[in-house]
Design a protein that fits this description.
The protein is of the alpha/beta class and 84 residues long. It has 2 helices and 4 strands.
């Protein structure tokens, strides 16, 4: 599995550890502070990752939460919009 987030990477690492998910089997692409993280993840970079995954792994499942689904062509994306 690959997790792509514009959130704070360290929070995702902690959350996944608490959920007892095997971090050695999951890639985390996250960053939102250039002084701390080597890159910034935004809506466009999430869409780029999703497009590449679809190209390299046809039939893969892509899940988007919150407003992230707006970045993708919703075709073959499982989108869970934010509740406001």
């Amino acid at each position: 599995p690959i997790l792509v987030s514009s959130g704070v990477r360290e929070i995702w690492v902690d959350a996944l550890k608490k959920a007892t998910l095997p971090l050695n089997k999951m890639s985390i692409i996250a960053g939102n502070h250039l002084g701390i993280h080597p890159y910034i993840v935004d809506h466009e970079s999430k869409a780029t990752v999703a497009k590449q995954l679809r190209k390299l792994h046809p039939g893969c499942h892509i899940f988007a939460f919150g407003d992230s689904g707006k970045s993708f062509s919703l075709h073959s994306v499982h989108w869970f919009p934010s509740r406001t």
